[in-house]
Design goal:
RNA Polymerase Alpha Subunit, Chain A, domain 2, 264 residues, 4-stranded antiparallel β-sheet
């Protein structure tokens, strides 16, 4: 059977889905591709022209690097693939400028971008506080990168999965309820004189229920279905991260097939 994706929940920054009929290797490759292979925009370096705040230049630069930026993959090149040869141009990087005086709390939304659409994804992230007489003037230059290079380029902050098990309760069940009491995830519930599965998705496969059942009525088995939880940073829509990750995996698989054919 071919792998399938079933969306369970979806919001602006978070998505839950089931990856069906997939091997553990494919599930983990999908997770790694979303975190480490999908490009996203982030501040690469900062030119600070004036800083009379209480923060060192390096601290400000580090803070800005970790603020997610709205990313448009079709409008920018990876810098090492750009026609400029990696020197930096409007096709592979963008500048966000700031010139403010205190007293003021500087937020991510205070920066002025070369492109009004390519801005910090969340505009109310505090960067630092300026007091009376203090001033900050800088230019932050952002580019595309991948999580393999640095965590600041990751388009997702959370990307985890777990195996969805198959739980069988056979006719030996006497309804004692010991499995209900011992289960840390409230997977089971009473159904008349027997026990049934209440929430399969909550099962962590600890098998406490199997160990406590004296009647050997419960069997927990692994399946080829995986429950994913993915939370985006706001740089890219989570669905786009998923789609791009699958495209990258497909491209890598095709490249591997070509290599194998050449060897043969």
């Amino acid at each position: 059977m071919m792998p399938e994706i079933e969306i369970l929940e979806e919001s602006e920054f978070k998505i839950k889905f089931i990856l069906k009929n997939a091997s553990p290797a494919l599930a983990n490759s999908f997770r790694r591709a979303m975190k480490a292979e999908v490009p996203a925009m982030a501040v690469d370096y900062v030119d600070i022209y004036l800083n009379s705040s209480y923060f060192y230049d390096e601290v400000i630069a580090h803070r800005l690097a970790m603020v997610p930026i709205k990313t448009y993959l079709d409008r920018f090149n990876m810098q090492h693939e750009c026609a400029c040869g990696g020197e930096g141009c409007p096709n592979c990087q963008i500048s966000l400028r700031l010139n403010v005086e205190g007293p003021k709390v500087v937020y991510s939304g205070d920066f002025i971008s070369d492109d009004p659409e390519v801005v910090f994804a969340i505009d109310n992230i505090p960067v630092l506080e300026l007091f009376e007489g203090q001033q900050l003037m800088l230019e932050a230059v952002a580019r595309l990168g991948t999580g393999r290079e640095h965590a600041k380029f990751q388009p997702v902050s959370v990307c985890v999965y777990k195996i969805i098990p198959e739980i069988e309760i056979n006719e030996n069940c006497n309804g004692c309820g010991d499995c209900i009491k011992v289960c840390p995830r409230n997977v089971f519930e009473k159904d008349g004189d027997r026990v049934k599965v209440r929430d399969l998705m909550a099962c962590s496969m600890c098998e406490e229920c199997v160990e406590v059942c004296e009647m050997n009525a419960i069997n927990v088995k692994e399946t080829n279905n995986f429950l994913f939880t993915v939370e985006g940073t706001g740089a890219l829509p989570v669905r786009e991260v998923m789609r791009k990750a699958l495209e990258i995996l497909k491209s890598k698989a095709e490249e591997m097939n070509k290599i194998i054919e050449e060897i043969q």
